[in-house]
Amino acid sequence: MEQARRTTSMLDYGLIGVLGILLGIPYALTKITQTTIPPLTGVAARVVLAAIALWFIVLASKIRLRSLKGYMPLLFVQGCVSSVIPYTLIAYGQVSVNSAVAAILNSTTPLFVCLISLFWTRHEPLNFNRIFGVSAGLAGVIMIAGVNSLQRLGTDAFGQVAIVVATASAAVAAIHGRKFNNMAPELAAAGSLTCAAIVLVPLCFLMDAPLQLAPSAGSIVALLVNAVFATALRAIIYFRLLRTIGSIGTTSAGYLKPAVGVLIGCTFLGENLTSMAAVGLVAIFIGVAIIDQKQQSETARRSNLAVVPTA
To answer: CA torsion, points 297, 301, 304, 309, in degrees to nearest 10?
Structure first.
């Protein structure tokens, strides 16, 4: 039993790392896509392509579609708060907000989850360890992005507010997404992204003229990678982690976005690791470890107490 728990824990840590990478990829890919594709059209195409890829996975895996019964309204809400609102607002926000400030603002999702839990849902108990982990991770993000980046807060007000609202929406999605713990992650991801596409495609035709565009090859490739890996694969891992480590632990992966950027730069691009960035990396890893460790122990306790009836 103890060995099984340890294996599961290490798998979750690995998935958090993968999720952190997939969370960081869309920023650069979105910038490339937007060179020839408008933000809303890019978001709509990204979600549609991701949904199609996920339905292929669902059908190939022979997952029972009957489990969707009664979940459609919840999936529609999930699609809006996890995809429509954050993807659209971040896409428009990135037009004016630089990457350092965007990284800081968009990495506050665990903080929003804590605040929502404290003042509203109380779905996960808050304690010193968890609050310390969230705070340490956020401090690490600020150290890596650069304390001077905070001086730009307020200079691009519209874009920054858009990213903050997107981040808050993602926090709501992480809490709401726990309602699908009894559904296969692939099916939950496919259903929520399909609902998001139903909203985004009409808006795309209303706001843009997608059929008249002539996107470049680079934009198309960036869009495809963003859809398949940074959206479809990310959604599967996301719903899987919500089931095993909860909303705070899952959203802590967002702290890894700037950390991954620093490690890639130092490893492959020959960039120097400053002392401030090194301290930031340590703070992020400590924060994520503390958050996830607490989540793991409580999830294991709930699993031992829960009795799930079978139909």
So the answer is: -110
Helix, strand counts (H, E) of the chain: 13, 0
Distances (CA, A) of 26 to 49, 220, 253: 15, 14, 14
Measured between its terminal Cα atoms, the distance across the chain in Å is: 27
| Cα(202)–Cα(44) distance, integer angstroms | 9
Calculated CA dihedral for residues 47, 102, 112, 176, nearest 10 degrees: 0
Cβ count near 269 (within 10 Å): 7
Could you report the per-residue pLDDT of 215-260, keeping only the tens digit for each? Answer: 999 999 999 999 999 999 999 999 999 998 888 889 888 888 777 7
Q: How far apart are CA 73 and CA 119, in angstroms?
A: 25
Contacts of 135 (CB under 8 A, 6+ apart): 287
CA 210 to CA 307: how far, in whole Å?
50
Q: Residue ranges of the domains in the chain?
A: 2-302
d(CA 167, CA 87): 10
pTM of the model: 0.82
SS3 content of the chain, % helix, strand, coil (to 5): 85, 0, 15
Mapped onto helix, strand or coil, the DSSP state of residue 38 is coil
Burial of 212 per CB tally in 10 Å (0-12, 13-18, 19+): exposed
Q: 211 burial class (0-12, 13-18, 19+ CB within 10 angstroms)? A: exposed
**Whose structure tokens read 């709509």?**
44
How many other CB atoms are there within 10 angstroms of residue 187's CB atom? 24
For 181-194, the pLDDT digits (tens) are 999 999 999 999 99
